[in-house]
Structure formats: C-alpha cells, structure tokens
Amino acid sequence: MALPTLHAFVEAWNKDQNLTTPDLHEAILDWLLENWKGNVRALLLMAFRNSGKSTLVGLFCAWLLKCDPNLRIIVLAADLALARKMVRNVKRIVERHPQCDGMKPKRIDQWASDQFTVNRSAELRDPSMLARGIGANVTGSRADVFICDDVEVPNTCNTAPKRADLRSPLDEIAYVLVPGGLQLYVGTPHTFYSIYSDNPEVETTDDADTEMRPYLDGFKRLELALLNEKGLSRWPERFSENKIDEIKKRTGPNKFASQMMLRPVSIAEGRLEPDRLILYETELDYREGNDEAILMLGARRLVSASCWWDPAYGSPQKGDASVIAAVFTDDQGDYWLHRVQYLEHDPALNESQAEAVQLCRKVARFMKDTYQPSVTIENNGIGKFLAGLLRHELREDGLDAAVLEKASSRSKDQRIIDAFDAVLAAGRLHAHASVWQTPFIAEMREWRPGTNGRDDGLDAVSGCLLSEPVRLPRRPAASSKDLKARSNWRGNPGGFKAHTTFKV
To answer: pLDDT tens digit string along 115-133?
Structure first.
C-alpha cells in the first residue's frame, strides 16, 4: 500500500473534521515537506499567534510516524502541560485518522498522556513520542525528531538570567538528537534578545570574545507574519481588517509587533510617554435621583473603579514610597486616573499614633474622597499586616468598602508594560491635573525597565489598570447623609417596584 503524501494526509484529516485547508496552511505544509525530502534538518517555523502552526506540526509528526513507525519524536515546550498538549493531539490523530489504522498498540501502558508508542518493528527504549518541559532532564534519551514548540514564553525569557537558563537545555539537544535527526523550532518572539532573532545581538556578558551571531544561526527559516509585504492579511477568512484593528487596540503596539508580526521587541521600547496622557481638570460629581446613585465626571458617567495601594514604610525620599491610586472607567470604555497620592507619615506623631495607623487613616480618607467601593493591597511584605488594620480604620470611619489582598508574582517591569502599553497607544488613559503635580509624571518620563529608578507610583497605577474593575450596582441608602450611600454609584442592576393608587 502506497504511503500518503503529507498534503493528502492533512486533507483527509481536515475532511474528517469538517475543516478546510487555507492557503496559509498549504504554504507551511509545502515548506515542511520540501525540507524533509531535501534532508534539511535544522528548521525554524515562525508564524503569528492562532495561525494553527502547532496543529500542523502535530499532523506532520503523525504523518512521519505513519511513514516510519520506528521514528522517535521528543516535544519540548516551556512547560510539561504545553508539551503534553501536542502529544495528546498527535495521539488523537493516530486514533482517529482514516489512514492510521493499525498504528495504535494493544498495550494500554504504551498509550499515556505524555508519551506513546505506535506499533513498530524495531525494539527501542524510547517511545514514539515523548513530552518534556524545558526544565526536564532528557539525558539518556534519543530522538530522530526534536520539536521545540513555544519554548520561549514570557516566563522563560523576561529576564537575562531566565534567557540564559533557557539556552542551557536547548544546547543539550545536540546530545539527544541522533546524527541526521530533525530539529524543528516553532514559536513567536517574546523579547528583543529572542532565540528566534536573525540579528547578531547578544546581551552584555563577562566574555569579551562572545561571537556576535543569532542563536539559531544556520537554521532554515519560514516567517509568516499576519500582514504580508503589501499589508494584507495572510488569513483574511479568519483575520479580517476589523479583527486585526481590534487586536492592535487590545494588545498594544509591542505585543502586536512581536506576536503577530514576529518582530523581536525590546521591553525598553515600551517606555512610558506622559504626553500620551489626556489632561483633565473636572472633579467627581456624586448625585442621587429616582432611587439611584450616579457618579459623573463632566458629561461622562463612571461605571467602575479600581483602587490599588502599594504600601511601604518611610517617606518617598527614603526607600520605597507608599502610593495609592484610583482609576475609574466610564460607560464608553475610557480610563480616568483621578488621583495618585504618595503617602507619608509624620515622625513627630509616632509615639501617639503608629506609622501604620497614620498610613491607614490617610488611605481611608483617600477612599472617602474618591468614592471608592474597595481597595486592593499588594500583600507582598507589610501588606499582610496593613490589610486588617485598614479594615478596622474603615469601620471606624463608617465606610462601607472592601479591602482585597493580592500578591504580585510577575516582575514589576512586565506589569507596568502590560498595564500602560495598550491604553496609552489607544489614547484612552486620562489623567487629572492633580496627578501632574505628583512624582508620578517624572516616574513615567524617566522610567527604564531593568534599572533601579523610582517606579512606586507606576506600580500602583498599573495595579489599578490590571485589576478587574469593581462594579457592584446598588441603590443608595435611605439618607444621602449616610456615608455608606456614597459607595453605591455604579448603577442599578434591575427594576424597581412602583407604588400606585389604582388597581389593575
């Protein structure tokens, strides 16, 4: 029986799954087949996010096993879960593909979630396909095909030490791959110093003789950005012009450039520009009417709020600053940075009023003045202690507001970029005139990632922008003098009962 060609194999699968094969996928299949037949064994496939590249590589692996069941394939990914995803996909293809009859073994122990072995003539130690995370030990394994599927992700490349740690296990592939074996990288760049970059750029090292060359120098490349040389979508059926514009607005220019246009982008290029902030001077206007509380900012109705406190002891001139910020969202989707306050304690009052108490009272006053329904405290460090104390101060002031606690696990630089990049690029972040009188603007102008400059205000505002907005619609309390009523301005979720003097 003649073996199926790669294109026929994929077409049969797509037909069975009620799918079509777009031109983009045809181009990838042509490239894979041409290089496999041409004995090119060092390949890099870069295609934009959601292009289906990993799915096609999975079909390619299943086809290889159909053609030669004695092949051994290792899938290496940023973590084991991602590697298992591809292995499970290939397993399902072998089980269900109309041209894969007889490949599935009878023994259940050869058909696991992270590895499987098809029926084959050779007696080999290694399975037909094996999933491994980037930190796993593959010493002693052997492979005819090594797939590196999304080994570069933010968690493996957002700092220089992580980038060095990523390259170390990748260097070991040469000792696992048999002579003449295929090494195929599949992914998109996530840093300026990407392993996929074709520029001879290296990071600063102690070795002055470091050779300036790309990490994957000598690999044959296929790069398929979302937009072709004419600026047209490579997959218009799925990524229309409107869809592309939506992605640009949602993700910001840096992420779009790296994930959709395949350009290694430095985090430093995402530095913040205060000139992109939209200045306003309007103050908050709290109203009640028709049994409903409303918070307005000029002609805009505010519908949600985020308040973030990045606490620290001491004054801003010594060590980390203790900063609280409030950001509102209106009914048109714009963001309004209304206040940023750098909190200081008075050392002269320390004997009668502890420093922590002073800070919590300032936060309570801040929340009252800005009509905040809740505040999130970064509880890394002293935040765990201050949360309980702040709840006490809010009760003492009669404020009906919640205190939420959240630990930050991502690097501060990445949080700041993720928070500001998209909203600044879209022109949706407004800043009150009072914000321009604080150190926050100087922090924006002077901030550079990877340095030790001040960024406490940036950290607090990024916490607001990245937090889910609080929108808890309620009716105001009976008396407008009751402070609790002032926290209920986010709109009425349902109807109300009308009292009438007539009968229906």
So the answer is: 999 999 998 999 999 999 9
Helix (H) or strand (E) holding 11: helix 6-16
* Residues 281 and 402 occupy one common structural domain: yes
Per-residue pLDDT tens over the stretch 293-337: 899 999 999 999 999 998 887 554 555 789 999 999 998 889 999
Q: Give the rounded distance of the alpha carbon of 100 from its chain centre.
A: 37
Domain of 321, CATH number, reads 3.30.420.240
Residue 379 pLDDT grade (very low, low, confident, very high; cuts 50, 70, 90): confident
For residue 271, the model assigns a pLDDT of 66
Which residue range(s) make up the domain with 146? 6-203+215-265
29-36: which pairs have CB atoms within 8 A and are 24 or more residues apart?
Answer: 29/56, 29/60, 31/222, 32/6, 32/56, 32/57, 32/60, 33/5, 33/6, 33/7, 35/220, 36/6, 36/64, 36/182
- Within-domain flag for 494: no
Coil vs helix vs strand at 60: helix
Cα–Cα distance measured from residue 324 to residue 227, given in angstroms and rounded to the nearest whole number = 42
**CA angle, residues 246, 251, 255, in degrees to nearest 5:** 125
What pTM was computed for the model? 0.61
Instruction: Give the pLDDT mean for 214-227.
Output: 96
The yes-or-no verdict on residue 92 having pLDDT over 60 is: yes
**Full DSSP string of 89-117:** HHHHHHHH-TT-TT-S-S-GGGB-SSEE-
| Cα–Cα dist 255/267, whole Å | 10
Cα–Cα distance, 276 to 322 (Å, whole number)? 25
In the numeric block, which tokens belong to residue 302?
């505010």
CA distances in angstroms from 304 to 326, 344, 459, 465, 468, listed in the order given: 11, 28, 20, 12, 9
Return left, alpha or beta for 237; rule: phi > 0 is left, psi -120 to 50 is alpha, else beta: alpha
Q: Give the model confidence (pLDDT) of 461-471 as tens digits.
A: 999 999 866 55
- The CATH number of residue 122's host domain is 3.40.50.300
Rounded to an integer, what is the distance from CA 58 to the centroid of its chain? Answer: 25
Report yes or no: 87 and 130 within 8 Å, Cβ to Cβ: yes
Gap between the Cα atoms of 12 and 4, Å rounded: 10
Q: What is the dihedral of CA 293, 295, 299, 303, to 10 degrees?
A: -100
Paired tokens of 342 = 């750098």
Alpha-carbon distance values, 115 to 71, 83, 84, 100 (Å):
13, 10, 8, 18
3-class state of residue 490 by DSSP: strand
Instruction: Indicate the number of domains in the chain.
Output: 2
Please give the angle made by the CA atoms of 472, 356 and 431, to the nearest 5 degrees: 50
Helices 6-16 and 23-37, packing angle to 10 deg: 140
Instruction: Give the Cα separation of 480 and 371 in Å (integer).
Output: 13
Strands (DSSP E) found in 254-319: 278-280, 284-289, 292-297, 300-310
Q: Residue 238, Cα to own-chain centre: how many angstroms?
A: 22
Same domain, 236 and 319: no
Report yes or no on 467 lying in a domain. yes
